[in-house]
Amino acid sequence: RLPCRPKVSISLVSICVCFGSYFVKSGNCWLQQGKNGRCQVLYVPGMSREECCRSGRLGTSWTEEDVPNSTLGILGVNCLNGETCDNVDCGPGKRCKMNRRSKPRCVCAPDCSNVTWKGPVCGSDGKTYKDECAMLKSKCKVHLDLDVQYQGKCKKTCRDVLCPGSSTCVVDQANNAYCVTCNRICPEQTSPEQFLCGNDGIIYTSACHLRRATCLLGTSIGVAYQGKCISNTPGGNAS
């Protein structure tokens, strides 16, 4: 909870008003504000901020404090023309929340009820997240095609990496372990330009064939150069 502003004498009262999060369920709803920003006409006492602002009346304001009916004016929270979260559709993975200025705002709030693993996870962006829920929030904020690669922190080797389903762990050229699927079907060769010479000296029919071999091997092969390997390069042909 944010600290209160210093006491300010307004009309007949001296009161401290907080503009942070409100934890009380009821307060006072004011019908009219003067040009000086003071609430001047008490509308309904014992009303929550949500109920007060939902009325949609122009100039409606709300205060947390319980003040006597004789109070002439008090500084409160402007409802900003009745804006609420009632009719705000934030879409999946988000929810509406009133900010400190009492304006509705969509914030990331993914459904983590089905998350069973509570430990850290390695994302498909190569970053470690404290848990899957934190990764889902990051996915919501930056709109990435982000998924969980495997449970646990991101690693530099495939040791202790358990890939989901039929995927296999591979270490790329940057020495990062990630999970890929090996049982892909590569299309037939359509051009001689598709040939690649791997760093292992083997000729690969296409980039797809090289990726499949990398997956099956479990470590990065890399491309030496485009085209077939020259005759004095050890190795053979991989289709």
TrEMBL record:
Residues 91-156, 180-231 form the Kazal-like domain. One of its GO terms (cellular component) is extracellular space. PROSITE patterns: KAZAL_2, TB. The keyword Secreted applies. It is found in: Secreted. GO terms for biological process: cell differentiation; negative regulation of activin receptor signaling pathway; regulation of BMP signaling pathway. Pfam families: FOLN, FST_N, Kazal_2. The keyword Repeat applies. Residues 27-62 form the TB domain. Gene3D superfamilies: 3.30.60.30, TGF-beta binding (TB) domain (3.90.290.10). This is Follistatin. It comes from Hucho hucho.
